[in-house]
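Morning run. Coffee first, then this:
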Amino acid sequence: MEIVVFGAGSLGSLIGGLLARVHDVTLVGRPAHMRAVEADGLRVGGAVETTVRPRTTTDGEGLCGDVALVTVKASDTVAAAEALSTGSFAAVCSLQNGFTEERLATALSVPVLAGTVTYGARLREPGRVDCTGRGTVTLGPYTADSEAATDDSAAVERAAAVGEAFRAAGIETEVRENMARQRWEKLAVNAAINPVTALAQVENGAVREEPLWPVARRAARETAAVARAAGVDLADDAAVEAVRTVAASTAANRSSMLQDVDAGRETEIGAITGAVVERAAQYGIEVPTNRLLLALVEARKTG
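And here it is:
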């Protein structure tokens, strides 16, 4: 399968590197990283070790493939969609944080897939990415907040094909016909883990322990309440259990938000916790824990 990874940072490089073992992969990334990959290949270390030689480019316009995997920061989604619209793809799949699929669907005329990833990834240096924990990929057609089965047969077929391509590359992958509940569950996990680890400067596993667990648990429960208001059946206990499971399976990982804080980069707090707060306001739901976490992380930019 011909695969374009648009946004070859930590996660994009890891997933792209694993796929490149058996597929024709093009990475779209920053110049220094792309130059290093072009010169010496992409070195994957940690829980998975391999060196692959995908094609590289810093220009995402005019590209073609069977699927484009979007792994840019949520704030860069519109720019990514504009670039991808100049190319030709059978489908586009978001593996991003936050609810970015709507922006892609609005800008593109091809089936849009939603995906979640529990692999841990860290870009050590240009040309090298570490897998800090094996995980799974779950993907399927994007269907907003409705839990009804999609009637888009093309999206269903593309999701099945992409899932098979992931599995062929040794990536444990589940394909679902509807991703609404999965998207909200992912948002609950991210809202509970990312800001808490970023503020406390700890690895993911620490959120399962006192004094952080009550905070993470409340953030997840509040997110589940907003999901139910949006028409998605996500129980509080299910959201909390998802946080516990992901925190355990990625215990040694440093969350993407913690990595951003450490590197002095802009975080995705707006796309994660901000999305919870924004949608809660639409439904008249109070989410005090998420509001506090949003304010504290945003304050770091001006502090």
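The chain is about 45% helix and 20% strand. Good start to the day.
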